[in-house]
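Lab meeting prep.
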Amino acid sequence: MKTLTVSLTISVIVASLMTYQGLFHNVMGEFCHNPGEVECDIDWVMVLGLWTFWMCIVSGGLGLLVFVFKTLKRTGQ
């Protein structure tokens, strides 16, 4: 349970940092409902999709690493 909590905490932090980078360095208006206009109306569904993507990738990668290391530890290698 401790490993899962640490893995999810790291995943939330990384996903939040990547979403922050994408949102506040939105040079070409990727997250705007109306790209090309002066005012950017944020498309929150796109932002949530970006956050979810990073959350799944990082937590899946960390979960796989934990599984491999625990398996190797159990087999004595």
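Slide two material, second protein:
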Amino acid sequence: MLDTRVVADIERGTFDPRRLLGYTPGISVITLGELVTGVAKAKDRVQRKRRADNLAALISRLFVLGFTTRTVVAYSIGLANEFERQVRMSFGAS
């Protein structure tokens, strides 16, 4: 399964998608949501269109793995815990 960073690196040209030959790559619905957010946050129309076109082409080649509510809750708790850890580290708390 590809994460958001790998997909962004493919778009930037810093990850060669040929490395995925022989695999059946997919993305999660969470990654898809993050990628769509990236399209919406583009700095201008040109970048937004390029991102949207790249994302549409990518989605046509991948499977999108859905998550159950239980999986999303576990992901969200993990994300919240990581965020809290980073905040504590930033302020020198243990």
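Talking points for slide two:
The helical segments are 4-12, 29-40, 45-59, 69-90.
The mean pLDDT is 87.
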